[in-house]
Write a structure and sequence with these properties.
Distance between the termini: 59 Å
Structural class: alpha/beta
Number of helices: 8
Strand order of the largest sheet: 3-7-11-13-15
Helix content: 40-55%
Order of helices and strands: HEEHEEEEEEEEEEEEEHHHHEEHEH
Radius of gyration: 30 Å
Strand content: 5-15%
């Protein structure tokens, strides 16, 4: 009878080994005895196994003590490491895959070398060890290092990339206590992207780095509480208006919202035409206006607001009240500032 294990992500991937009375082979079986765990390691060495898909390692895993034979690829898809998984001081001479791998305890790759591509896809690290620098001293000379949707990815300080290595960090999110890790890891990804000219991802990495940098801001990092509030304010302003310089659509949305809000304010203040006709709606008599009249008035004043915001100033409508002049001055200032921001963002992305 063959083992009944099959992959959760690829149902065509099934186990080829024989099962015992539990219905599973010794590699996929859970709650193995000490003798069975020892037999697992022995069989791996004897058969020079390189595909560990779905294997359950219930004792400490030390790759230096297990894999000393040649291989083209090491596949740890859906592998579960119940205890420590040690990959220190090891030279990976082939492609390595960690898809849906579950590291339940401490894992480390310190001083290892990767000579081929490595993929961590939907892998899960233990959150208790997320602040550990598990890649310290790693030398990566492979073509690609992919970290996609990895959970609780530890800090990647100390990893040394080849000048041609592409480091891809996508959809890796962090909880509150590990925001600083997100900032550091996305900064490392951005620096490597700059190094190899991976312009498609530089903006994404920079945005994520700034987001986690904002989330990790603390009062104690600033001389005074006022400095902290000032930094938070300008950081939020940069995020929601220009997306830290990486999201041009934010500028367009902010522009439309600004024009619409000022049009609403002008509607209750009143704007005069060249024929001395007052366009506006009085709050006290609002109920006397039909919905069509309100919409028509708002459209006229939205046009005036847009002309003011863009500093075109046709002159067919003017403000006469003090409050109206203040609002117009404020909208012109915002229009010039936002237009400059839009230009800066577009040019930055075009140059890149």
């Amino acid at each position: 009878m063959k083992c009944k294990w099959s992959s959760n992500t690829n149902h065509k991937c099934i186990c080829k080994y024989d099962a015992d009375e539990s219905g599973y082979c010794i590699f996929h079986k859970k709650n193995k005895s000490k003798e069975e765990n020892e037999k697992v390691i022995k069989l791996i060495k004897e058969n020079k196994i390189n595909d560990f898909s779905g294997f359950a390692f219930e004792e400490k895993f030390n790759i230096n003590e297990i894999i000393g034979y040649p291989y083209e690829e090491l596949n740890f898809t859906e592998t579960t490491f119940i205890k420590e998984a040690l990959f220190n001081n090891y030279i990976f001479n082939g492609k390595v895959i960690f898809n849906n791998t579950n590291f339940l305890e401490f894992t480390t790759f310190i001083n290892s070398q990767f000579r081929y591509s490595v993929t961590f896809n939907n892998a899960i690290f233990n959150p208790r060890h997320s602040n550990k620098k598990i890649f310290m001293g790693v030398i990566f000379t492979g073509q690609n290092l992919v970290m996609n949707s990895v959970h609780n990815l530890p800090r990647m300080d100390g990893i040394k990339f080849d000048e041609y290595t592409k480091f891809i960090l996508l959809d890796v999110d962090y909880e509150k206590e590990h925001y600083i890790n997100g900032k550091i890891n996305y900064r490392i990804a951005r620096n490597q992207a700059n190094k190899i000219g991976d312009h498609e991802r530089i903006g994404y990495y920079y945005y994520k780095e700034r987001v986690y940098g904002s989330k990790s801001m603390k009062v104690e990092d600033y001389p005074t509480y006022r400095d902290y509030l000032s930094s938070k304010f300008f950081d939020a302003l940069s995020k929601y208006t220009v997306g830290y310089g990486e999201r041009p659509w934010n500028v367009l949305i902010v522009s439309i919202v600004t024009v619409s809000v000022f049009a609403l304010l002008y509607m209750f203040i009143g704007i005069e035409t060249l024929n001395n006709e007052l366009i506006g709606i009085s709050m006290s008599t609002l109920k006397n206006y039909s919905l069509t009249e309100i919409i028509d008035t708002y459209i006229d004043l939205w046009y005036f607001s847009m002309v003011t915001f863009t500093t075109v100033g046709y002159g067919d409508m003017i403000v006469t009240s003090a409050i109206g002049k203040i609002l117009v001055s404020l909208e012109v200032f915002l229009g010039v500032t936002i237009a400059a921001s839009w230009t800066s963002v577009i040019i930055k992305r075009m140059i890149r």
